[in-house]
Amino acid sequence: MAERLRKFRGREKEKSEYDQKVLDVARVTRVVAGGRRFRFRTVVVIGNRAGKVGIGIDKAQDVTTAVEKAVANAKKNLVIIPIKDTTILHEVSAKFGAAVVILKPAKKGKGLVAGGVPRVICDLAGIENVTSKLVSRTTNKLNNARATLEALKKLKRFE
Fold it and tell me: Which SUPFAM superfamilies match (predicted)?
């Protein structure tokens, strides 16, 4: 019976190669002559847990459409991160807007010692052992995510 319903609806979703996590959903308002128009802005992080990670931001009338658009946007902005023995190669820091983040490599078994946004991004990138610190006082998840991604882009591969 369930199989028949699936065929009837024709909506079997194939599994994506990227895992995704919604970081932030914000209701944004535009004031027009007739009143206020509401939309939703979503920030989504996608990653394959093997060194590829991306951030996508998009807006739509409802949350599900905004998430789908943000995932499509994140796939266009993927970054490849050099990972060695489940950690990063060296210490990096970056600033984006008011957000400042520091990422340090950690020994095997230490785990993800990070809070909030850097934890999610490092997890989806496949980094298992790292220490992170958000130095700034900002709680803006979008700027924290962008600062973390900028720090990961600064990683150099030593041969």
Answer: dsRNA-binding domain-like, Ribosomal protein S5 domain 2-like
Q: Tokens 């990070």 — which residue?
A: 114
Q: Which pTM value belongs to this model? A: 0.85
Q: Would 135 be classed as within a structural domain?
A: yes
Collapsing DSSP to helix, strand or coil, 136 comes out as coil
The domain of 75 spans 16-79
Q: Are 121 and 101 in contact (CB under 8 A)?
A: no
| pLDDT tens per residue, range 75-114 | 999 999 999 888 999 999 999 999 999 999 999 999 999 9
Name the amino acid, one letter, at 60: A
**Cα four-point dihedral sign 12, 18, 23, 29:** negative
Do the Cβ atoms of 41 and 25 come closer than 8 Å?
yes
Domains identified in the chain, total number: 2
